Amino acid sequence: MTATSPLSTHHPAEIAPPAPSTNPNEAAEHRNEDLIRIFNDLFVDRFATELVRGDEEPIYLPANENRALAQVVFAHGYFASALHEIAHWCVAGRARRRLEDFGYWYQPDGRTLEQQRAFERVEVKPQALEWIFSVSCGFRFRFSADNLSGANTDMKDFKRAVWRQVHTYLERGLPKRARIFSRACRSFYGTESQFGPAAFPDPLTAVP
Question: Where is this region: Disordered (predicted)?
Answer without folding.
Answer: 1-28
